[in-house]
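Support request from a user on the community tier.

User writes: "When I paste my structure tokens into the form, the page sometimes reloads and wipes my input. The last time it worked, I copied everything first. Here is what I submitted, just in case something in the input itself triggers the reload:"
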């Protein structure tokens, strides 16, 4: 069995090996393992990779939205706000935007190309936002040092 930590749901009708829910496929009413039916195994693997790529692409865009909200919150904080508020907002931006960038890059590295547009969108949005945020920090530091 490919996944010994999972419970077997049946035995392959061709080779008799135990099959888990992730690797078992039913073809013409019989359970088969992916070793005996490699074409089905390849199809399952492609669907898993497509699902992973889709979620990485979606996470990339969601993290960008959260990062932008933190960025806006940072800009709207009054000067009198406690330092902890700035720290939490800063941390939100510093965590969300790079994490979104990484998720988008992981989506782009997938073998399937179905969700490539979403992944590129996530990477571009996160990259631009990160660049803007860094520029705002640099300008803010320059003004503070004057």
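"...and here is what came back when it finally went through:"
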């Amino acid at each position: 069995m490919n996944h010994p930590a999972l419970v077997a749901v049946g035995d392959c009708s061709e080779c008799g090996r135990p099959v888990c829910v992730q690797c078992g496929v039913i073809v013409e009413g019989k359970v088969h393992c992916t070793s005996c039916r490699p074409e089905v195994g390849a199809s399952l693997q492609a669907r898993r990779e497509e699902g992973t790529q889709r979620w990485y692409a979606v996470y990339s865009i969601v993290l960008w939205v959260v990062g932008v909200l933190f960025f806006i919150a940072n800009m709207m904080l009054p000067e009198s706000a406690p330092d902890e508020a700035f720290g939490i907002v800063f941390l939100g931006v510093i965590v969300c935007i790079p994490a979104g960038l990484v998720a988008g890059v992981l989506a782009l590295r997938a073998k399937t190309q179905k969700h490539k547009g979403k992944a590129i969108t996530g990477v571009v949005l996160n990259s631009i936002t990160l660049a803007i945020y860094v520029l705002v920090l640099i300008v803010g530091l320059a003004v503070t040092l004057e």
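Agent notes: The reload is a front-end session timeout and is unrelated to the input. The first strand starts at residue 8 and ends at 11. The chain is about 65% helix and 10% strand. Escalated to web team.
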